[in-house]
């Protein structure tokens, strides 16, 4: 643009062209000027160079360029602060695009790895995997499928799955359709067939694959051949329920089968016979020979029993040399007896080995169940076991039938013993005391401690109501120890009050013959420092079973060294009266009350009583008559030379707390009869 400078600038700024224009010098063109000197004019060239250098130093060259080359027109300054929000948005957008791109790349890479891993798992999985479409046509299988079924992939691809058809069979009890519809997965065990026709069990998981619209698109079937597992489980079950030595059912397996048979008997009202067989003398075989020969004997016996019984009969080995047999639905007792005799005869046959020939026998106990009683299998077995024990007691090599009435009595006996053991623990037993009297002068020569049971429901029970239950039972020892301790404590208490009454106690034969009786008695007496010889008298029943006469005599002598006296109670009622007098060092004889009560009316009892008194006199024993009920009895006894008596004519048994009061009122009438003062 050419014109006045102010006008031109106005137009340029008005139109916004000022940034595109520049001002130039006066000429309308530009040119390049240079100076030249003749070659060789070095002096002139140096002068010119110095002049140009001086002009450059003085700024003459820049002023010439500005004048002739032009300079930029002045313009308004750019306001950068107004543009930074837009620049920030652009930067953020760019960063977001970069980050999103990186995330997409990561997702693509991860999905690719997952697909690659899934494909690897599918191909290399130990379990067989089969993928089908919704119609059940096979789309893919893995290598384990081929190993398990025998079918190559090419043989089954695009073919209908026989496995799915089998699963979806509507006749199956556990068809998976309902479970698949609810849960989308079904698990179970089924039997399949390999390519070679072999049937085998599989553990299978069937999963339903759905698209986003919840429409079924595929089925995934994963299954494992569990043939080895089933075989192992079968072996374990066999070991759990069968005897390793004989391959017969063991106790556990037999009990399960017996439970079923007893249930069937209850429902059908059929009888069931149970035979419990134990070999006689089998221990001697093991002791004489080695156990391996004993095992061979057991195998032979097991095979003989198995071959003798019918197919529906059961034989089992409970352990050791004990076998049990169930004989269901026996038509009659005669048939049962015939079978049992046949079993015993079969066992009795000689067993021949290379090194020896053995002859064994068997004792058999038989119990019957008619389906009416509510008993458990274990109790049924115990009944037959008890009958077998009775057969051995009767001489072995025979059978014995279980007696239910006797069993009920035994059961009641055990319950009674248990109740008395509880009574002893609960301190329900008490001691009553009955004085023993010199019938000539009325002096008290001692007291007898008599046990009573203060039953919480039945009241005060006399000894005849419970002591017979514990005769020759180990509980008699525990109860006897309690009686001795309680009697000695009472004797000590009386001494503290200035009264010296020796106390006698009854001891059961099983207690007296216990190996540690003497030591126990010595330790017990040591706990009572005030004990004096003669304070304790032990009454041993002459009618009780004292198996070892010499041993009992030794025990008595040992106890006598401790200051303990002995008396034979109920003398004259046993079968060894003379032997007892001869061998047992008892100083006192207590005549049984049965002779005393009837002496006035029964001539035979009177003769027996006189005979006992004569024996006592001959062996220099002191006699005390029990059961002195009346004055007449006391007079008659005194007339025969019996000075000491015990009975209701003098006092009934009473608690220790009443005995002192009785003593203050006791008098002897006419030298024979006691009464209480009013």
Automatic annotation (TrEMBL):
Domain EAL: residue ranges: 413-667
Signal peptide: none
PAC domain: residues covered: 186-238
PAS domain boundaries: 114-159
An example Gene Ontology molecular-function term: catalytic activity
Cofactor: Mg(2+)
Limits of the GGDEF domain: 270-404
Pfam families, sorted: EAL, GGDEF, PAS_9
SMART domains: EAL (SM00052), GGDEF (SM00267), PAS (SM00091)
Protein name: EAL domain-containing protein
Organism, as annotated: Vreelandella azerica
């Amino acid at each position: 643009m050419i014109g006045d400078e102010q006008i031109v600038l106005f137009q340029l700024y008005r139109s916004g062209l000022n940034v595109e224009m520049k001002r130039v010098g006066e000429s309308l063109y530009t040119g390049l000027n240079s100076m030249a000197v003749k070659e060789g004019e070095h002096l002139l060239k140096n002068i010119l160079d110095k002049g140009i250098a001086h002009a450059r130093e003085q700024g003459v060259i820049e002023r010439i360029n500005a004048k002739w080359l032009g300079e930029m027109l002045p313009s308004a300054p750019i306001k950068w602060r107004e543009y930074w929000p837009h620049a920030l948005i652009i930067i953020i957008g760019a960063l977001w695009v970069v980050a999103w791109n990186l995330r997409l790349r990561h997702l693509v890479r991860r999905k690719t790895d997952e697909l690659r891993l899934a494909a690897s798992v599918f191909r290399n999985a130990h379990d067989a995997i089969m993928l089908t479409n919704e119609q059940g046509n096979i789309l893919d299988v893995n290598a384990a499928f081929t190993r398990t079924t025998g079918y190559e992939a090419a043989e089954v691809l695009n073919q209908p799955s026989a496995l799915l058809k089998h699963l979806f069979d509507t006749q199956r009890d556990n068809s998976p359709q309902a479970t698949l519809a609810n849960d989308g997965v079904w698990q179970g065990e089924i039997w399949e067939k390999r390519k070679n026709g072999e049937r085998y069990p599989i553990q299978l998981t069937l999963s339903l694959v759905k698209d986003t619209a919840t429409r079924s698109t595929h089925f995934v079937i994963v299954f494992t051949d569990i043939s080895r597992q089933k075989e192992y489980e079968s072996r374990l079950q066999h070991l759990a329920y069968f005897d390793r030595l004989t391959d017969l059912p063991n106790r556990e397996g037999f009990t399960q089968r017996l439970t079923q048979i007893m249930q069937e008997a209850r429902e059908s009202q059929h009888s069931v016979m149970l035979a419990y067989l134990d070999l006689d003398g089998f221990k001697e075989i093991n002791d004489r020979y080695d156990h391996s020969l004993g095992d061979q004997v057991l195998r032979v016996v097991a095979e003989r029993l198995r071959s003798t019984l019918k197919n529906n009969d059961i034989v089992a080995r409970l352990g050791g040399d004990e076998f049990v047999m169930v004989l269901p639905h026996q038509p009659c007792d005669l048939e049962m007896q015939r079978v049992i005799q046949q079993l015993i005869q079969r066992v009795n046959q000689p067993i021949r080995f290379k090194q020896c020939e053995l002859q064994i026998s068997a004792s058999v106990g038989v119990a019957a169940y008619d389906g009416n009683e509510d008993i458990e299998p274990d109790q049924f077995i115990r009944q037959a076991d008890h009958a077998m024990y009775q057969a051995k007691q009767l001489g072995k090599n025979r059978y014995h039938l279980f007696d239910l009435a006797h069993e009920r009595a035994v059961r009641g006996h055990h319950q009674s013993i248990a109740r008395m053991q509880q009574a002893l623990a609960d301190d329900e037993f008490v001691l009553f005391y009955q004085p023993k009297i010199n019938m000539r002068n009325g002096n008290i020569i001692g007291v007898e401690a008599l046990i009573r049971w203060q039953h919480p429901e039945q009241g005060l029970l006399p000894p005849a109501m419970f002591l017979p239950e514990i005769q020759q039972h180990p509980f008699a020892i525990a109860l006897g120890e309690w009686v001795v301790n309680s009697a000695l404590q009472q004797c000590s208490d009386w001494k503290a009050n200035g009264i010296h009454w020796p106390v006698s106690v009854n001891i059961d034969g099983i207690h007296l013959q216990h190996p540690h009786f003497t030591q126990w008695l010595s330790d017990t007496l040591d706990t009572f420092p005030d004990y004096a010889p003669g304070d304790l008298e032990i009454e041993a029943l002459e009618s009780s079973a004292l198996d070892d006469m010499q041993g009992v005599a030794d025990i008595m002598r040992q106890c006598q060294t401790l200051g303990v006296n002995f008396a034979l109670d109920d003398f004259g009622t046993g079968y060894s009266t003379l032997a007892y007098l001869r061998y047992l060092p008892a100083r006192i004889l207590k005549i049984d009350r049965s002779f005393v009560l009837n002496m006035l009316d029964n001539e035979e009892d009177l003769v027996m009583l006189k005979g006992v008194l004569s024996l006592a006199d001959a062996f220099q024993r002191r006699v005390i008559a029990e059961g002195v009920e009346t004055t007449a009895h006391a007079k008659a006894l005194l007339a025969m030379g019996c000075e000491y008596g015990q009975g209701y004519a003098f006092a009934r048994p009473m608690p220790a707390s009443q005995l002192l009061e009785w003593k203050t009122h006791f008098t002897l009438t006419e030298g024979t009869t006691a009464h209480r003062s009013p």
